[in-house]
Amino acid sequence: MFKLACEGGRPVRSEHLVFGRPLIGEEEIAEMVDTLRSGWIGFGPKCLRFEKEFANYVHADFALSVNSATAALHLALMASNVGPGDEVITTPLTFTATANVIAHVRARPVFVDVDPRTQNMDPVLLERAVTRRTKAIMPVHMTGWPCAMDEIEAIGERHGLTVIEDAAHAAETWYRGRKVGSMSAFTAFSFYATKNLTTGEGGMLTTNDANVIDRLRALRLHGLDKDAWKRYTPGAFTPYETLEPGYKYNMTDLQASLGLHQLDRLERALAVRERIWSMYDEAFAELEGVTVPRIHDEQGTRHARHLYTIRLDLERLECDRMRFIQAVSAENIGTGIHFVPVHLHRYYRKTYGTKRGDYPNAERIGDRTLSLPLSASMSEEDARDVIAAVTKVARRYARSRIVVVGSDAEDGVRQAA
Ligand code: T4K
User: Fold this and answer.
1) From the CA of 190, how far away is ligand 1's center (Å)?
2) Please, are residues 22 and 194 in contact by the beta-carbon 8 Å criterion?
3) Which of 46, 135, 179, 195 is catalytic?
4) Is the C-beta atom of 68 inside 6 A of ligand 1?
5) Is 82 helix (H, G, I), strand (E, B) or coil?
6) 150-187 pLDDT, tens per residue?
7) What confidence category does residue 410 fall into, taking pLDDT thresholds of 50, 70 and 90?
8) Is 19's C-beta closer than 6 angstroms to any atom of ligand 1?
9) Shortest-distance atom of ligand 1 to CA 200
10) Any ligand 1 atom below 6 A from CB of 373
């Protein structure tokens, strides 16, 4: 066996492979230059075009461009009139922003555990968590795999709850013949630097509700009745008026310049990630100490393949996760952790009294998960380097021929023999 780089051996590659490196093409660069030369760099015609094209892509009636998914989620809660005293049910296995926005409107985040196979909110636990204070449900399509939306919608209807989807990972996701972004009252998308579609920072809120769209447009820009583009179109100047104290959440044409071309290549980029995904699946299927996601696109249901998360079967390894990550990093491969469950973060422990043991499935995943590089900016050689590094590290730390009871194999995740 080759010596690990962290033990003085030669790394798998000489240059660091950055986790989450975006693919930016010449089209984005040319569009950005065009925007800079045009003099209109704030919210304007390119944002409007991007909104139209994105709405079209996700089969939504309306799309509202914003400066982050966090802003989109916050606006959705406001438009759903969620406020102090209300409860919003979500998953602990998510980025902190999902729960933070619930705190922003002074409602209470209520977590329900995840299904260990899908990593998504368990609908049975969801229904049990509904109280008379519950106002909304915020499912998160973790890694890009859709939540059980039929069940979630039915629960929402039974109890009169608004469904706000966190689709930060799920721009390309389909669920049983329906596109994510077209199903619920609101859906929020993220265009952060590492996302499948990036505008540097940015997001989109989609809805089919014509009654709320004007309020949302105002809330996104200080609560004004007109944005700058509307006000300064030649010959159409009128003063603005504040309708309610809104937020500074708008996107800019500079960001939309990226978004337009990122959207254009979204399906092609997905095909690249699908290829990397299957290389990983194949390479790690029999690797001791590592379990791979069980993912089978079904008729009408498609994974967006945003994050490829392996789980370390720590009972089969002689190292903990940090040591594994550091060893892989020394081989010059970047990785990520998605996520440390939100209920374990200090603010949530202190404010809501959540603690370890509350959501065992999310915690088990949170303790063992590791995201490998998965970006359309990667070549097949990059993917082979990732495979070589993970294999090298797993083999070095493997406790061979130990049969473990209670491993992730029981969660329905494919397990190394
Ligand atoms: N809901 C969910 C489920 C989410 O995952 C997120 C965001 C949100 C809601 C909220 O979306 P936004 O409001 O942000 O639109 C991040 C991001 O801060 C966060 O946006 C994202 N999720 C979360 C998954 O990741 P980190 O700590 O994992 O990533 P970060 O910033 O360390 O970047 C990872 C790697 O990407 C870096 O090591 C290098 C590379 N990178 C990063 C940047 C910024 C680049 O190559 N180029 C870059 O420009 O947090």
Assistant:
1) 9
2) yes
3) 195
4) yes
5) coil
6) 999 999 999 999 999 999 999 999 999 999 999 999 99
7) very low
8) yes
9) 49
10) no
Q: Residue 118: what residue type? A: T
Mutate to test the pocket of ligand 1, among 66, 190, 374 (most ligand atoms within 8 A of CB): 190
3-state DSSP assignment of residue 63: strand
Helix, strand or coil for residue 272?
helix
Q: Is the pLDDT reported for residue 275 higher than 60?
A: yes
d(CA 123, CA 151) in angstroms, rounded, equals 6
373/335 Cα distance (integer angstroms): 6
Ligand 1: which atom is nearest the Cα of residue 202?
15
CATH of 5-21+267-335+373-416, one of 2.30.42.10, 3.30.420.40, 1.10.3860.10, 3.90.1150.10: 3.90.1150.10
- The answer, yes or no, to whether any atom of ligand 1 lies below 6 A from the CB of 166, is yes
385 lines ligand 1 (CB under 6 A): no
Instruction: List all residues 6 or more positions away from 189 whose beta carbon is below 8 Å from its beta carbon.
Output: 54, 58, 69, 72, 167, 168, 170, 171, 181, 197, 203, 204, 205, 206
248 as an active site residue: the answer is: no
Is ligand 1 within 6 A of the CB of residue 21? yes
Identify the three-state secondary structure at position 338: coil
Residue ranges of the chain that CATH labels 3.40.640.10: 26-264
At position 229, the amino acid (one-letter code) is: W
CA of 236 to the centre of ligand 1 (A): 40
Structure tokens at 206: 């989609």
The verdict on the CB of residue 192 being under 6 Å from ligand 1 is: yes
Asked if residues 362 and 114 have their Cβ atoms less than 8 Å apart, the reply is yes
Ligand 1 nearest-atom number relative to CA 190: 15
Strands lying side by side in the sheet with 108-111: 62-66, 203-207, 186-190, 162-166, 134-138, 87-90, 108-111
Q: Is the peptide bond before 2 cis (omega within 30 degrees of 0)?
A: no
CA-based Rg of the chain, rounded to a whole angstrom?
22
Domain 26-264 belongs in CATH node 3.30.390.50: no
> Which atom of ligand 1 is least distant from the CA of 21?
46
Q: Per-residue confidence at 200, pLDDT binned at 50, 70, 90?
A: very high
Residues of the chain with CATH 3.90.1150.10: 5-21+267-335+373-416
